[in-house]
Hints:
Protein name: EF-hand
Keywords: Calcium, Metal-binding
GO molecular function: calcium ion binding; protein phosphatase regulator activity
InterPro entries: EF-hand-dom_pair, EF-hand_13, EF_Hand_1_Ca_BS, EF_hand_dom
Largest sheet: 2 strands, antiparallel
Strand order of the largest sheet: 1-2
Oligomer: single chain
Number of strands: 4
Pfam families: EF-hand_13
Bound molecules: calcium ion
Amino acid sequence: MHLWNMDNPQHDALSAVTLPALEWYWKKEMEPFDPPERFFRLVKQPDEDCILRDDFLPYIKALLNDHPGLEFLANHAEFQEKYAVTVITRIFYSVNKCHSGRITSRQVRRSDLLESFSLVDEEEDINKVTRYFSYEHFYVLYCRFWELDHDRDYRITREDLLKYGDHSLSHMIVDRIFDSAPRPFEHDKVDREHLSYEDFIYFMLSEEDKSNEVSVRYWFNCVDVDGDGRLNNMEMRSFYAVQLHRMQCMGHEIVPFEDMLCQMMDMIKPTNPDHLVVEDFMQPECSQVSGALFDALFNLNKYLLFEQRDPFVERQKREDEFETDWDRFACIDYNRLAMEEEAREEEAMEIDWVTVDEDEEEEPEFNGAVSSEAPF
Ligand SMILES: [Ca+2]
Ligand SMILES: [Ca+2]
């Protein structure tokens, strides 16, 4: 309608779509183009040359109204909104690799957006649509954010992020995440003291799957402190020094920097042994090991796991049903959260019984005691 009104100023402005307007639209905007270009033109605003964040909203709203897998969210406007934010941010993470916040026609063409949109249209089990739309993936992302955002102002601080994954990140990488990691939106006024939920999604997707191009660039950017596009010994050594200190404090056997680096270089086999460039991490045989170097530099818990890895578990991992490390992580973490939630519910029921038995009249005072619970 907007397009028609812009293109036909000689007519009275339309307030509803008429058949001639629809035919005109089809002939002008759809018929001459192939499916990816049609998708692009349909989603973007008529006077823009790229897709912006809010352009996906009407489609996610329609999905929330019609998809059987999302029916149970019908009376929870707040979670519907968070679901939409999550799906849209995940789309930008994978499709808008340059993180400009503007998806171009070329990016649509090189992405799996069309397949994902048509899959979610056909597939009744929303959790099978692991690209962008899975409810379980949303649940995991949002619960993890909720756990850290204890004051409920919808943003997290450096202190909060240090608690992520059982305090697995070093303070040095947390500072770099806040100071220089890519952010999805609001580029002109980035709040470097906080991470929004959208920023957190970028962080968490990168943290839990270090084997794809977007996450490699995310972490590379964080460790490349001088920004020259190379990871040199000094940069890696300074991150590793913080890890060494933590290993010592916790009484773990320490691995000297040179030994760690030597082991990593043997796996990554960079073109130039003096420094690493992003392309070194992108070699196909490298995708499963490149994350190990990043973990060695800033994620103590994962590095210790890597050091003690069990070849049997490694093989199982390679042969399981999951396409990506993120899918595997999200499935395991969803089950963990669901079990915790179940245990909490059982506990709450027991408390209820006790209250009813002992002190029936005071029961209403229990309201409000649930603020630390997960949001669902
Ligand atoms: Ca907060
Ligand atoms: Ca550098």
